[in-house]
Design brief:
Layout: H1 13-20, H2 60-66, H3 73-86, H4 88-94
Length: 96
């Protein structure tokens, strides 16, 4: 049986064509804002703006659903009690 020797994937014609066709796709251009490739740095001693789940208002129904429960009256009442008792910590436990 003769074994066929394959060339490396990066030398395949399709790959070479794709490399030569390296152009920006408008849908993926971010305009230079912060993203995974261009992070935003803060000055030493300056605190970064951290957004957490508790940084927005929450209804008991939302908390019950975030905990994976159906928004039944009992679950909603329990979530309401959690929000009253623990405040933002109730949300941070579920949606950090």
């Amino acid at each position: 049986m003769t074994e066929q020797i394959r060339q490396p994937l990066e030398e395949e014609p399709e790959v070479l064509d794709a490399i030569e066709d390296d152009v920006a796709v408008e849908a993926f251009v971010t305009g230079g804002g912060p993203d995974a490739d261009t992070p935003e740095f803060v000055a030493p001693g300056e605190l970064p703006a951290i957004r957490t789940g508790a940084g927005q208002p929450w209804d008991p129904e939302d908390l019950a659903e975030a905990e994976g429960k159906d928004p039944t009256p009992a679950h909603v009442e329990y979530a309401r009690e959690e929000l009253e008792r623990d405040g933002a910590a109730a949300i941070e436990r579920t949606v950090p």
